[in-house]
Amino acid sequence: MSGTMEDRLAKIFSQTTEAERAEIDRAASFIRAGRLVAIPTETVYGLGANALDAEAVKSIYEAKGRPSDNPLILHVCSMEMADSVVKLNDRARFLMEKFWPGPLSMVLFARGVVPLRTRGGLETAAIRMPDNRLTLELIRASGVPIAAPSANISGRPSPTDAQTVRDDVGGKIAAILDGGECRVGVESTVIDLTGDKVVLLRPGGLAKEDIEAALGLTVALPQDGSNIIKRSPGTRYRHYAPVIPLFVAEQATEELIKGRKWAWMGMSEPPGSPVAKIIFASQSKYARELFRAMRTLEKSGAELIIAEKTDSSRIGRAIMERLTRASGI
Ligand code: TXA
Ligand code: MG
After folding, report:
1. Is 44 in the pocket of ligand 1 (CB under 6 A)?
2. If pLDDT is split at 50, 70 and 90, which confidence band does 229 have?
């Protein structure tokens, strides 16, 4: 990315129209009143509320049916706002300057203003600046950071368009900002910056390789049984699951299909005859369309979905993580 974070933000903010402004002001009044607003981001849609209002945050958990020990990401629109909720360090400032706004969430020690409910009882909190103009404007107009998990019912594939948000949580929210289809399609990369090592808590829209190149060090993977795993509660739950079984495989084989009707998603053409198939022209399109494809194929009449394995470098790491979780392995 070019320029400073400030330059990038100024350019984004300069594009807002009068009509959008009215819609944003209305949504901001809902946020300040403690209500829920669905927000577009470059990754997936979020279910947003005032991060500093414990009651508002409680209604996020209720609307999603989410376990209350799984902490939320605070979405901010400036360095000052980030600094008001967590204790920034040099690495965090460097990465913000380099990658924000963008799909990178950083876990840092929380300041006292962040309610325990927002951070799932932890001493840390995750922050990110989403790369979406409407949502950045909403945060700015609200004057508070917005806590937002993905706007799906807990366990379901994350929504990447406004209609899917309506399908999942439509009756429970005061407003939806419609920002069209999400560009990245998988959630943000979450890293822990509280220790000496930088640890990858969740692969996502920003490649681990890009963070490593920027910092000039290796980003560690969480080790089973370590404290880090305990500190990333979201990694314990089954996620992103379609209503029919999903298998991750290199090929559609009779051993997997067992005479059932099957659907296929992947980058190559499958052999045989699936009842439905979705072919992605590139890995970034695989990521972008992944969750929508799960929701489409579960309604195709198939009894199972076979998702083609993909190379797990760069964005592929996030794709493979989501597929593995959806398969329940
Ligand atoms: O792209 C995204 O990150 C989307 C959009 C809406 O911004 N949000 C999202 O939120 O995916 P959610 O709640 O579905 O996932 C947040 C992840 C969870 O795995 C959670 O456990 C982890 O971030 N997390 C949040 N705060 C944490 C903390 N203090 N320590 C460790 N992990 C944390
Ligand atoms: Mg989620």
Report:
1. yes
2. very low
